[in-house]
Amino acid sequence: MTASPWEPDMPEPLLEIDQVSVEYHRGRRTPPLRAVDNVTLSVAPGETLAIVGESGSGKSTLGNAVLGLAPVLGGAIRFRGRDITHADHRERRALSRHIQVVFQDPYGSLNPVRTIGQTLAEPFLVHRNLDSAAARAEVTAMLRRVGLPADAADRYPAKFSGGQRQRIAIARALMLSPQLIICDEAVSALDLSVQAQILNLLSDLQREFGLSYLFISHDLDVVRHISHRVAVLLHGRLVEQGPTAVVTTDPTHPYTQALLAAVPVPDPQEQLRRRTRRNLEKRPRPGESSGRSGGCPFSGRCMHTMEICITETPPPSNVSSGGMVACHLHAGHVLLETPTQQAV
Ligand SMILES: Nc1ncnc2c1ncn2[C@@H]1O[C@H](COP(=O)(O)OP(=O)(O)OP(=O)(O)O)[C@@H](O)[C@H]1O
């Protein structure tokens, strides 16, 4: 793997995303959209890596690239050391035993005319050639494991609440004992109390089965409870990465600070303090932060913007907390006395 200051030393990553870029083509008259730009990340066995950022920052695209569902322009994605970037249909089918996904809206991905039992048994019948009685026993055990009654197997998706449907989606993801689950906004549509239950379930399952999660969320507060490390995307670029305790309480990049300021907290004084520090009111469209291909993607909204932020892409640098940041403020450049732009 290409040496990168973004990556702490980790023995044998399960998943490596190595300088990956993804571009969507939008017709002949519109330039392609660089949804993910030269991102390098890895996930260790048993680890949860959270990917956070605003809507449109490229989080789902990155997850989809791992799943083979997004057009990877450059770089490599490796799973257990094997390059899967452009895996063909047959290889993808084999990989689906090891890499599974849980989406935000399980209702959309659960077949409404199949019982839960039929849906959950399907991977067994396809991949493991189990007879239906053996598959049924596995389904019952899995339903119990995710906190649903055994008779859930005979019911249809419409009979379940949002939280129960998410348990079903998790059960389906687990049926073939995968090593990596991509959770794409998996708890975003749920009430806070149900969110907490599902996050606890995911943590328990991780401990029990040694699972790794790539946990995609727009909500820094949610990832605080589940992830070991957090990576922050902005307009497809990785701007900060580090241990969860640091990134979610004392981040280095002005963009992450602004994301944190936007998280509601119970203490009004604390909220005011955070909001006064940074905010995220001006939102240029993805890929249009400064109207240039270079420069920092946050330069149009950052209260510390310097000339160099507009013209040069900040290089990744190590920060003392063990994380990394891509910000000219932390790359040996001093802050100008009069910032060129103020966050509003
Ligand atoms: N299939 C596609 N074709 C063209 N553009 C796409 C496609 N999927 C995503 N995009 C664009 O790529 C950019 C990144 O989208 P993506 O969904 O990855 O972001 P995100 O951070 O997951 O945001 P959200 O949480 O809103 O889904 C956006 O500008 C989006 O409009």
From TrEMBL:
Superkingdom of this protein's organism: Bacteria
MF terms in GO: ATP binding; ATP hydrolysis activity
Ranges for domain ABC transporter: 15-260
Any Pfam family hit: oligo_HPY
Transmembrane spans: none
Region spans: Disordered: 266-298
Annotated Basic and acidic residues bias: 270-286
Record GO biological process: peptide transport; transmembrane transport
Protein keywords: ATP-binding, Nucleotide-binding, Transport
SMART domains reported in the protein's UniProt record: AAA (SM00382)
UniProt-listed NCBIfam families: oligo_HPY (TIGR01727)
Family affiliation: Belongs to the ABC transporter superfamily.
Descriptive protein name: ATP-binding cassette domain-containing protein
Organism from which the protein derives: Amycolatopsis pithecellobii
Lineage of the species this protein comes from: Bacteria, Bacillati, Actinomycetota, Actinomycetes, Pseudonocardiales
